[in-house]
Design goal:
170 residues, mainly alpha, Growth Hormone, Chain: A, 0% strand
C-alpha cells in the first residue's frame, strides 16, 4: 500500500511541495522570536504577530476551502499559493528591515493569507490523486515530509542566529 502511494508521481510532487512549505511554516515558528527580537520587537509584539499570522491564515483557508469545494481547481490553487508565498516572503524580508510594526504587521497578514491555506489544499489534493488509498496513510506521509524539512529549516535558521553578525540585523 505504501509503495503504491510513493510510486504516484503526482503525490510525490505534492509531497515535495508540502514538505517545503510546511518546513518553512515550522522554520518560521522556530526563528520567529530571535529574528524579531533582533530587530527590536518585544515579546508581546512578537506574540501578536504570530497570532495575526495564524488567524489570517485560518480565515484565508476557510475562503480557499469554500472556493475549492465549488471549483475543484486544486492545481491552480497550489501554484498560486506557492508563488504567492515565495513572493511575499521575499518582500517581507525587506519589510522587516524597517522595524516598523505596522509595515511588518501588514506583511505578516499577507504572509498568513498566502502560506497557511496550503495545508488543507495539499491534503485534499493528495487525497484526490491517491484515491482509493486510505487518507490516513496519505496525510501521514505528507506530515512526515513536512516535519523532516521543518527540522532542517528550523535547525539552519537557529544556526544562522549563532553566526556573528546575523543576529545584529538592525
Amino acid at each position: 500500500m505504501l509503495l503504491k502511494v510513493v510510486k504516484n508521481k503526482q503525490f510525490v510532487l505534492i509531497m515535495l511541495i508540502f514538505g517545503c512549505l510546511d518546513g518553512v511554516f515550522i522554520g518560521i515558528g522556530v526563528v520567529l522570536d530571535p529574528f524579531f527580537d533582533a530587530i527590536g520587537f518585544g515579546p508581546s509584539q512578537i506574540s501578536a504577530l504570530g497570532g495575526i499570522f495564524v488567524i489570517c491564515g485560518v480565515l484565508s483557508a476557510l475562503v480557499i476551502g469554500y472556493v475549492l469545494d465549488k471549483t475543484s481547481k486544486y492545481l491552480i490553487t497550489m501554484r498560486s499559493i506557492c508563488i504567492g508565498s515565495t513572493l511575499l516572503f521575499i518582500i517581507g524580508y525587506a519589510s522587516f528591515a524597517t522595524g516598523n510594526i505596522y509595515i511588518v504587521g501588514a506583511n505578516i497578514v499577507l504572509d498568513g493569507f498566502a502560506l497557511v491555506p496550503f495545508l488543507p489544499v495539499c491534503i485534499a489534493f493528495a487525497a484526490e490523486v491517491t484515491f482509493p488509498m486510505q487518507e490516513a496513510v496519505v496525510v501521514g506521509i505528507l506530515q512526515m515530509s513536512g516535519q523532516i524539512t521543518g527540522l532542517i529549516f528550523g535547525f539552519v535558521g537557529s544556526l544562522a542566529f549563532t553566526i556573528k553578525g546575523i543576529s545584529d540585523y538592525r
